[in-house]
Amino acid sequence: MAVSQSAAPRPGALLNLQGVEESQRAALWSRSARTFFPGLSVRSSPVNPQMGSITGITFGAGRLWTVLSPPLLVSYDPDDAPENLTQIFSVMLQLEGTTIACQHRTCVLHPGEFCVIDSKSPFDLEVSAVSSRIMFMQMPRHAVLSRYPYLERRTAETFDPEEGGAILLRSLLMSLLETAPLLEDEQRATALAVTIQMLGAPKLHSGDSTHEIGWRVRTALACIDTQLSDTSLTANRVSKLQGISRRRLDDLMTRAMGTSVTAQIWIRRLTQAATELADPRYRERTVSEIAFEAGFEDAAHFTRAFKRRYQCTPREWRNRGGYLSTHGEGM
Q1: Is the pTM of this model over 0.85?
Q2: How far is CA 236 from CA 9, 160, 221, 244, 286, in A?
Q3: Distance of CA 29 to CAs 43, 47, 65, 176, 297, Å?
Q4: 3-state secondary structure string, 114-154?
Q5: For 165-217, how does the pLDDT look when each residue is reduced to its tens digit (9 = 90+)?
């Protein structure tokens, strides 16, 4: 499936090898890769690459990148990256050419295909053809995996490009690439939140153990997300709206997500608060205001719950720009 890229704008150009003296291109590309993506190292590349560019634009607490790469092999080691940059989860869409991605498994991305990559674990990317153009959206890891924990086990796996949910997500990513320069900061931050939500749209293969995440669980999670600010939201209300017993919905939710419906409500409230605390757009809002908007009625209770989940206070989280102080994320 070809994905046309000829008309797409090039926002936030950071590097373009065109115009760079040929003898300096390889060294510049390698140095730039390490600068823009700490923890990444170029293991092999042409002596004088004929092309190569990197563009990026901020999307709230995330970033949208477009990379035109010459043939190369790059490796990422989280031990060589700052702690905050290991708290990133990315969706990578192939635009032109092919890219081989390896993280726990190996997949080959062709135009129109995408996979997810977790910065918490090492990975390799290889371009063996003349060139490869990819785009990827970096998102806060905690915001993604608190909603879709099964994606942690699905990295470097190609989603079916013809499946309805995958088509929907791909269309969103392409639209963001085209409209990014036209959007204001607040609009891009909103688009990031939408992208995170849309990661749940592509269906998983029915033969996988995670197939238990069926339409009831997806619908229940969507119901929770749209009513988070309502302090009276309960698991009983969610199950009633689903037309299913509380016990049955809890069973399905636990099998799919590893937690009960009530736990999902609190996890998602904490995730929303953590995302907004790390977002510069909300700097003028107090911690209490953000907590109340996420559905907490008591600031002290919010602080205690936040510290249990993120191992730091909300203010410490905000001051660090939103990343974990330890490797745990449990409640």
Answers
A1: no
A2: 47, 35, 14, 10, 31
A3: 12, 11, 16, 26, 51
A4: EEEEECCCCEEEEECCCCEEEEEEEEEHHHHHCCCHHHHHC
A5: 999 999 999 999 999 999 998 899 999 999 998 998 887 654 444 444 567 78
- Strand ranges (E), the chain: 13-16, 40-44, 53-59, 62-69, 72-76, 88-97, 99-102, 106-109, 114-118, 123-127, 132-140
Low-confidence winner among 208-222, 237-251, 311-325 (lowest mean pLDDT): 208-222
- In the chain, what are the domains? 13-184 (2.60.120.10), 211-320 (1.10.10.60)
At 78 the three-state DSSP class reads helix
**Cβ neighbours of 287 (radius 10 Å):** 20
Q: Which residue matches tokens 């290991």? A: 86
Residue 97, helix vs strand vs coil: strand
Amino acid code (one letter) for 82: P
Backbone φ and ψ of 250, nearest 5°: -60, -40
